[in-house]
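Sequence, please.
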């Protein structure tokens, strides 16, 4: 049985796509996943399964659509992939509030995207992660999920430093 970190894109954001975590855990248990845990209200899941990553993503997306009537993109990483993403972060993590990781739905060969007006904000594209360093704050940055998705033709979901590290701690404990 393998353990995975599963990320849902765009739930419980600004009152949209409300998905109570207790109901989500119940849905995932009903789908046969083991050791299901969630972290905060933004679609961070740990679970164990014998199934492939693509099957897990499809099952979760399909069942959320049936039960909650939301078409929610689902991304998945192994603990090893998650740790690698953290270890490869190229910018300072001294100020955790300006550090984030945008996880992508596929590996990207592209290393640059044109975004006007990003000022001191920085990014680095590395396979299936965009590393973000945003001194302008995430409320003001142009490096949003929507921008990344449009420029790279992928699904992207972003997690801040604290959440990313917490998920690694949780999966390490599991």
């Amino acid at each position: 049985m393998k353990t995975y970190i599963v990320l849902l894109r765009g739930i419980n954001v600004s009152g949209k796509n409300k998905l109570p975590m207790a109901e989500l855990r119940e849905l995932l248990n009903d789908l046969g996943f083991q050791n299901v845990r969630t972290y905060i209200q933004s679609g961070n899941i740990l679970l164990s399964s014998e199934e492939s990553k693509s099957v897990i993503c499809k099952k979760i997306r399909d069942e959320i659509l049936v039960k909650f009537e939301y078409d929610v993109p689902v991304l998945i990483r192994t603990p090893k992939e998650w740790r690698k993403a953290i270890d490869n972060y190229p910018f300072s993590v001294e100020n955790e509030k300006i550090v984030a990781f945008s996880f992508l739905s596929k590996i990207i060969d592209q290393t640059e995207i044109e975004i006007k007006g990003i000022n001191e904000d920085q990014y680095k594209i590395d396979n299936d992660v965009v590393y973000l360093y945003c001194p302008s704050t995430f409320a003001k940055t142009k490096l949003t999920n929507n921008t990344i998705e449009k420029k790279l033709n992928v699904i992207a979901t972003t997690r801040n430093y604290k959440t990313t590290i917490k998920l690694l701690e949780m999966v390490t404990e599991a």
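The chain has a mean pLDDT of 94.
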